[in-house]
Amino acid sequence: MIEINKLEKCFGDTQVLTSIDLRVNRGELVFVIGPSGSGKSTMLRCCNRLEEPTSGSILLDGEHVTDCRGRALDRMRLKIGMVFQGFHLYPHKSVLANVMLAQVKALKRSRSEAEARAMEMLDHVGLAHKASAMPSELSGGQQQRVAIARALALDPKVMLFDEPTSALDPELVGSVLKVMKQLRDEGMTMVVVSHEMNFAREAADRVVFMDGGVVVEVGTPEEIFGNPKSERLRAFLSRLQPSGA
Ligand SMILES: Nc1ncnc2c1ncn2[C@@H]1O[C@H](COP(=O)(O)OP(=O)(O)OP(=O)(O)O)[C@@H](O)[C@H]1O
Ligand SMILES: [Mg+2]
Questions:
Q1: 52 Cβ inside 6 Å of ligand 1
Q2: What is the reported pLDDT for 245?
């Protein structure tokens, strides 16, 4: 579903991604881990061209993301749902209006169609009862679930998550992970950058370890956490779990 070939990204003289190759199969949940500054966010952002790749190619369901321009790029971006650490909801619009907006503006759906789809997606993330609330009246976990509903309402082919729970209080993390797990069970193709290693163990099909702008190791959660091959991955994991547990 996603095919990244020899992706390179430089900011000025600094190379932050070096020859990234990654394939994500339909319905797969690929988890991306790695130290701060290793290029995880940059890789995700290249996938919908929030960052312009310096070289290499990215295909979504067989279509070149990297060659798209203008309208074609806008259409391509709609197929790639993105959820960030911050929720970026419009503060002066209701939850329902937030989930409707891009459907009407970008997909040109009628208001009634957009509303029906928004309600369906809000129900999906357990928040239909908050449709008329304002974002400020919701907890962080609820706001993030609205952001997920908003992305899903555009019927994306893949969902990319960049540290979706990092800004949340610990007790709110679970509700967001639950929605993500449900999406996975429904067959959504997902790439998730996160520090929630327990979630990776439970829900990921494969885990990608990045360090210094390269993919160092790819494997099942059992392989990556239970039998890390590279010294860099072992060092990274031991910093996460000083006890070695
Ligand atoms: N717009 C930019 N201009 C210059 N350098 C950038 C820019 N964005 C990112 N970088 C650099 O690229 C490298 C990778 O950054 P990136 O945000 O992708 O890392 P990350 O793995 O997501 O880190 P974190 O875990 O802290 O979110 C870092 O060295 C960062 O300083
Ligand atoms: Mg990041």
A1: no
A2: 45
Question: H-type helices in 54-169, by residue range?
Answer: 70-78, 95-105, 111-124, 140-152
Q: Is 36 in the pocket of ligand 1 (CB under 6 A)?
A: yes
pLDDT at 244 over 70: no
Distance between CA atoms of residues 142 and 150, nearest Å: 12
Cβ pair 64, 41 in contact under 8 A: no
* Half-sphere exposure for 86 (CA within 13 Å, toward CB): 4
Cα–Cα dist 113/102, whole Å = 12
Q: Which two tokens stand for residue 183?
A: 């999406």
Q: What is the SS3 assignment for 209?
A: strand
177-202 average pLDDT score: 96
Q: Please give the share of the chain, as a percent, with pLDDT higher than 70.
A: 98
Distance 84 CA to ligand 2 centre (A): 9
d(CA 242, ligand 1 centre) in Å: 26
What would the mean pLDDT of 73-92 be, rounded to a whole number? 93
Tell me the pLDDT band of 242, cut-offs 50, 70 and 90.
low
Q: Is 217 left (phi over 0), alpha (psi -120 to 50) or beta?
A: beta
Q: Which amino acid is at 202?
A: E
